C-alpha cells in the first residue's frame, strides 16, 4: 500500500532520492514533468489549449517541466503564466523556464497583482503555484490570483495539491484562498488533507502518479496512514480452485431484517453471494420468510419465532458457521437487543461483522462493546460512529478516536464515507481509493456488510476482508456510475457490478 507521509518527510524523501539514486534536482523535476504530461494526455484528450500557472518553488518547477514537454508536442497550444519575476525562481524552475521561453510553441506571460491574465473557460488550467511546502494562508496578491482562477470557469488541474490547501490536515478559514481543483494529479501518494471531509472536496478527483521516489527513503518514514489501491486489491484476491465446492467458500450466517426493513436483509444476502460466498443462512423474522425465499432463493432460511423482529438465536448453532454478520435492518426493539447480546457471546473470533442497528444497540448499551470478539469488523457511518465514541469536533479528532477504538478494543473499524477509512488493531488507518458520491444511497451499507461477510467466510483475515471488501464495494459503485450516472445508481446496481474491480 502507498504510504501517506507529511510535507516535511516528503522533502526528506526527495532529498534522499536525489542523493542516492542519484539524480539531479532538475532530472527529478523533468521526470515529474514527463509523468504529468502522459497523465494529462490520457485524462484530457479533448483539451488542446493548456494554461499553466507557475509559482517560484518546486511546484512551479514541476509545472514548467510539464510545460516543456507540452511545448515540444505539436498537438498543444500552450500558455505559461509566470507569477513571480524570473530572478525569484528556484533552481529547478529557472532551469525549465529558460528552456520553455525559447520554444516558439509556448507563450510566456508575466503575471502580477496589476496584470492578472485573461483566463478562458474552454482552456485546461494547470495549477502549479504552490505545493506541499506551503504552511500559511494565502493573502494579498496570491489570494487575489487564486480567486481569479476559481472564478475563471476553467477546468482546473492541480499538480500534487491545490494551491493553498494545507498538506497535513488542519482547517481552512477562507476557501476562496484555495484553488478549487476539479482534478488533482498527486505525486507518489495522496496527502492526508485530501482524505478529510472538510478539505478533500477542494482536490476534486484524485489520480496518484508514481514519480519513482526512492523506496528505501519511503520505507524509513513513519506514518500510520496508507492508501489502498486496485493493485493492493488484486494482490489479495484468492483464485478459486478447479476442484473446489460450495463448502470451500464458507458457511455464512446473516442475522438481519425486521418488519418494514427486509430490504436491508435482501441486499446484504445478495451481496454476500455475489462476493463469492459458498453458503449463506439468513436468520430473519417470520414476516421476512416469503420475501427472502423469493428475492434470494439461494439462501437457506432460519426463521425467528417472532413475526416482526429478531428475538432469539437459541435454535441457531453459531459454531457451524465460518463467519457471522448482524445488524442490517434489524431495528432496535428490546427483544432484538437481547438476541444481539446472545449472538455476541458466541460469535466466532475474527469472523464477525457488526453493522447498522447492531451498532446502535451497542451504542445504547456500551457494556456490549466488551462482548465484541477481537478482530471483529464494525462498519459504522459517521453518525453511528459518534454514537459509539461521542461527538468529534474535527476530522482529525474523528480519526484519532477511530484509531483509539481499533487499538483499545482490538477491532477493525471501517468508517464509511468518501475514501472509507479502515482502522486496524495496530493503529494503521487505510484509506480507500475507489467509490463515488452516487453510493450515498439507501442500502449501500448493507451491500458492504454482505461483501465483507462473504470474504470472511472464504477465509480472508479480518483486515484483508475489510480493506478488500471496501475496495470491491467502491469499484462496483464506480462501474455502475460509469454505465449510467452517479445520481442514477442504487444499492442493487452496486451488487450487480461487484465483479468489476
Task: Tell me what you see in this structure.
This protein is α/β, with parallel strands linked by helices and 501 residues long. The chain folds into two domains: 2-223, Rossmann fold, CATH 3.40.50.10260; 234-496, UDP-N-acetylmuramoyl-L-alanine:D-glutamate ligase (3-Layer(aba) Sandwich). The protein is 38% helix and 16% strand. It contains 17 helices and 18 strands. The relative contact order is 0.09.
Domain tally: 2
CATH homologous superfamily of the largest domain - what is it? Ribokinase
The chain-level structural class is alpha/beta
The termini sit apart by: 17 Å
Taking pLDDT < 50 over at least 5 consecutive residues as the criterion, the unreliable ranges are none
Q: Strand sequence of the main sheet, in spatial order? A: 1-9-18-17-16-15-14-13-10-11-12
Helical percent range? Answer: 25-40%
Outline of the structure:
The protein has about 500 residues and is an alpha/beta fold.
Describe the structure using short key phrases.
single chain; 501 residues; alpha/beta; Rossmann fold; UDP-N-acetylmuramoyl-L-alanine:D-glutamate ligase; eleven-stranded mixed beta sheet; seven-stranded parallel beta sheet; 17 helices
Write the layout of secondary structure elements.
Elements: E1 2-3, H1 7-20, H2 25-43, E2 49-54, H3 58-71, E3 77-82, H4 91-100, E4 106-110, E5 124-128, H5 140-150, E6 155-159, E7 183-187, H6 197-200, E8 205-209, H7 215-220, E9 225-228, H8 230-236, E10 251-255, H9 262-274, E11 279-284, H10 289-295, E12 300-303, E13 323-326, H11 334-346, E14 352-354, H12 356-364, E15 377-378, H13 382-389, H14 395-409, E16 412-415, E17 421-423, E18 429-432, H15 444-457, H16 462-483, H17 491-496
Parallel strand pairs: 2-3, 2-5, 3-4, 5-6, 6-7, 7-8, 9-18, 10-11, 10-13, 11-12, 13-14, 14-15, 15-16
Antiparallel strand pairs: 1-9, 16-17, 17-18
